[in-house]
Amino acid sequence: MKNNFIVREVANLFLPIIVLFGFYVQFHGDFGPGGGFQAGVIVAVGIILYALVHGLKKTRQLIPDVFIRFLMAMGLLLFAATGLASLFLGAEFLNYSVLGSDQLTGQHIGIILIELGVGITVAAVMVAIFYAFVGRDAK
Amino acid sequence: MLAVTAIALLCVRGLFVASMLTGIYSLLTTALFVLLDAVDVAFTEAAVGAGITTVLFLAMLSKVSARHNDSSTLNFQPLPFLVVILTGALLVYATRDMPEFGDPQAPANLHVAPKYIKDGKKETGVPNLVTAVLASYRGYDTLGEVTVIFTAGVGVLLLLGRKRRRTSGESGEE
Question: What are the domain boundaries of chain A?
Answer without folding.
Answer: 5-134
